[in-house]
Design a protein that fits this description.
By secondary structure, the protein is mainly beta. It is 11% helix and 61% strand. Strand 5 and strand 6 form a beta hairpin. The longest helix is centred in the N-terminal third of the chain and has 7 residues. The radius of gyration is 14 Å and the shape is globular. The chain starts with a strand and ends with a strand. Binds free fatty acids and their coenzyme A derivatives, bilirubin, and some other small molecules in the cytoplasm. Involved in intracellular lipid transport. Belongs to the calycin superfamily. Fatty-acid binding protein (FABP) family.
Length: 127
């Protein structure tokens, strides 16, 4: 199953408490909470390029499944991570105490970020 495509955020759960917990400043949280971000994914075999545009903020990451890479996280910090593929439709990464699971089902991508007992969920639809 190919992740390649453009996806628009449809809904999200626990945005504000999660962003506060990871240390995002209140002004950025307020600016970002109502913006419908666009995620663009290009998959070439085991290599992925992901660009997430939220208003004027652009987050760009590239990685190859199973290989260590440097990723920029939501706070702007760059960290080392390894992304694994589970089955043919799920990407899993553990970054700085944060677990990220991205699952593709048809035209819907669900991204779940978990830190301790706090979970932030984003649902985006292919456009």
């Amino acid at each position: 199953m190919s992740f390649t495509g453009k996806y628009e955020l449809q809904s999200q759960e626990n945005f504000e408490p999660f962003m506060k917990a990871i240390g995002l400043p209140d002004d950025q949280i307020q600016k970002g909470k109502d913006i419908k971000s666009i995620s663009e994914i290009v998959q070439d075999g085991k290599t992925f390029k992901i660009t997430v545009t939220t208003g004027s903020k652009v987050l760009h990451n590239e990685f190859t499944i199973g290989e260590e890479c440097e990723m920029e996280i939501l706070t702007g910090e760059k960290v080392k991570a390894v992304v694994q593929m589970e089955g043919n439709n799920r990407l899993v990464a553990n970054v700085k105490g944060l677990k990220s699971v991205t699952e593709l089902n048809g035209d819907i991508i669900t991204n779940t970020l978990t830190m301790g007992d706090l979970t932030y969920k984003r649902i985006s639809k292919r456009i």
